[in-house]
Design brief:
The chain is flat. Helix content is about 50%, strand content about 0%. By secondary structure, it is mostly helical. The protein has helices at about 15, 35-70, 80-85, 120-140, 145-150, 155-175, 210-225, 235-245; strands spanning about 225, 230-235. The longest helix has about 40 residues, at about 35-70. Helix 4 packs antiparallel against helix 7. A hairpin with a 4-residue loop joins strand 1 and strand 2 (about 230-235). The chain has 8 helices and 2 strands.
């Protein structure tokens, strides 16, 4: 049966099947497995080149820095030239009587992502621990203090919960800064506070729960600007001092 001009072709007819499919040439469209494979290879090659370029730049920077540090300062340096004009002789100490330092002040490079206030906070924490232990040792054990603590059992439970919250937050923030071990054994929840045999001051007296909470809370506030009672990380120290009511639970 012949078909008319207005009648559409059957979808199973030869006229329909023989029509050449128009190729989709939209940019960025990967049609075949071969195109996809080549695309993945090119992407991996660019990533490797980028990594090698970055690594090479770091190695070159380290080499140039080391060469500069090993090179002695000579008269071409303006500061060295001024010292010579004031009577300084190479190899002798600085100062009126040549009793000052001979070598220049060393360079300390900061290559990690730890907070700038962390070292200062840890140093002050060590002083706090010594002061706490000395204070308790001079006062001696007291039965009244023991009974008072038993009467404040509810408050101590709250301190225990606060300490555990601080430990979890401290572990999370330290790991984000690539700190793989806690600065103090009680800073992270996995570690049980133990007596350090290298410190004779802590052999007989352990740090109490309240003191651990005070130290760890101080560390979080100084290092990460974090208040456990507010549950907030503030932008900087001034923001913490202005917005946070205080460092203790009673302040909140």
């Amino acid at each position: 049966m012949a078909t008319t001009d207005n009648e559409e072709d059957d979808y199973m007819s030869d006229a329909f099947l023989n029509v050449e499919t128009v190729k989709d040439v939209r940019p960025g469209l990967l049609l075949t497995h071969e195109q996809q494979r080549l695309h993945c290879q090119m992407k991996k090659r660019k990533e490797c080149e980028s990594i090698n370029k970055t690594t090479g730049a770091k190695a070159l920077e380290e080499q140039q820095r080391q060469e500069g540090l090993e090179k002695a300062i000579d008269s071409t340096n303006k500061g060295f030239s001024l010292l010579q004009k004031m009577g300084y002789k190479p190899g002798s100490g600085i100062g009126k009587n040549n009793s000052g330092r001979v070598e220049p002040i060393g360079i300390v490079l900061k290559t990690d992502r730890k907070g700038l206030g962390r070292e200062a906070a840890l140093k002050e924490i060590r002083e706090m621990k010594k002061s706490m232990i000395q204070s308790r040792r001079s006062a001696g054990p007291s039965v009244c203090e023991y009974r008072e603590r038993r009467a404040q059992e509810a408050a101590e439970k709250l301190d225990c919960l606060d300490l555990f919250r601080c430990q979890r937050v401290c572990r999370q923030m330290d790991l984000e800064q690539d700190i793989q071990e806690p600065s103090e054994k009680f800073f992270w929840p996995e570690e049980v506070p133990e007596v350090d045999v290298d410190e004779p001051e802590e052999k007989e007296l352990n740090i109490s729960l309240n003191e651990q909470l005070e130290i760890l809370n101080f560390y979080l506030r100084c290092t990460y600007n974090y208040c456990v009672y507010c549950g907030t990380v503030y932008e900087d120290e001034s923001d913490l001092m202005e917005e946070c009511p205080g460092p203790n639970r009673q302040d909140h």
